[in-house]
């Protein structure tokens, strides 16, 4: 007899009714070649390794989007991302020898350039045509500030490398890091578009986990704004009857990039257009594993508490709480962090078992946009990507703003919502300006709308 699909218990002690397992969303969560989501993700550049891994002088075996690859830097300094198994007899190129140009397989000496071109087949006759007929599978690669990026999609769909304005902020020192999570990529990346988890996970449940941001215990007013290739959203709070309005702006850029406000700071005095302290991608390794790659932005303007630690940022480590598996079981249970929240959903979260509420507006928006674009790719259409400004970079808005705006006696939540919308408008209008002009324009515009705010 076919069991009826029951998603949720509807009365007390009703666990029996939902004992049957339900399948994960195959369209959404599978990332291998030819899967809907896998093909969509292959239309973007993704970080796949840290430069320091290549500095050791040996090829590094990696898995990305369900494909086994090898990444290396040849002796000329060029970076290669090749299929792991040699086109000749399938020996792994992780045991290959790095050459002046490309890599040579350990098994029979076939020599491949970083673009997959076969440079030499030493065991074959001199007039062999093999190297003119086939290539080793390879993908375009680029290094930037300690991260290695790769594009794994069809050549005719290759977008420009996504140069964000936040990747070149004067005074910012970008320190790369990477952390593994044994779960599907989506449940980790959704964390970045859910501002309400900060209230509970990072505040009310275990006490404030981030110094200087104790006001995050208050429920915020949140507004989301869609943009080409992404979403900018902000949440606003004020404590008690004070005039200060604290706004934190976030970037979510499709499919898997996020930026937020400053780490280790104090938001007790007016300021405009603080910049991000964190840029991060959640890259699917396979259906059940993901790896976060990112930069911590160390700078004097947005890290006023000076509690950041460059030495604590790198492979499997970052200098703020709850991001890795490398804590004691007792600490994870007594003071769980982000890592526990997204990995404890299981290797692949079953969305049919979720019961979403009003605080999940961002998650619902993310899933809707992703599903729409995944299906566009399946229909043979191009995905609308990020748009560069006249400066040649992509404007971003992640950061913090603090304004002095008197409280509304009748509808303060409505006032906060209008402040968010007004400041988002201002940020977007200034997106194509140089840094100093941008900051000045934003301050003047805010003070015009809210006199004395800054």
Q: Please, could you describe this protein's structure?
A:
There is one protein chain. The chain is of the alpha+beta class and 454 residues long. It folds into 2 domains: 45-157, Rieske [2Fe-2S] iron-sulphur domain (Rieske Iron-sulfur Protein), CATH 2.102.10.10; 165-449, Alpha-Beta Complex (Naphthalene 1,2-dioxygenase Alpha Subunit, Chain A, domain 1), CATH 3.90.380. 21% of the residues lie in helices and 23% in strands. The protein is built from 11 helices and 19 strands. Strands 12, 13, 14, 15, 16, 17, 18 and 19 form an 8-stranded antiparallel beta sheet that branches. Helix 10 (412-429) runs antiparallel to helix 11. The longest helix has 18 residues, at 361-378. 39% of the residues are buried. The mean pLDDT is 94.
Q: Span from first to last CA?
A: 68 Å
CATH class of the largest domain: Alpha Beta
Helix content: 10-25%
Structural class label: alpha+beta
What is the overall shape?
A: globular
Series of secondary-structure elements, N-terminal to C-terminal = HHEHEEEEEEEHEEEEHHEEEEEEHHHEHH
What fraction of residues sit in β-strands?
A: 15-25%
Going by CATH, what is the homologous superfamily of the largest domain? Naphthalene 1,2-dioxygenase Alpha Subunit, Chain A, domain 1
The biggest beta sheet, please?
A: 8 strands, antiparallel
Radius of gyration: 24 Å
Which architecture of the largest domain does the CATH hierarchy give at level 2?
Alpha-Beta Complex
Number-wise, the strands total: 19
Tell me the number of helical segments per DSSP (H or I, 4 or more residues long).
11
Low-confidence stretches: none
Mean pLDDT: 94
Q: How is the CATH topology of the largest domain named?
A: Naphthalene 1,2-dioxygenase Alpha Subunit, Chain A, domain 1
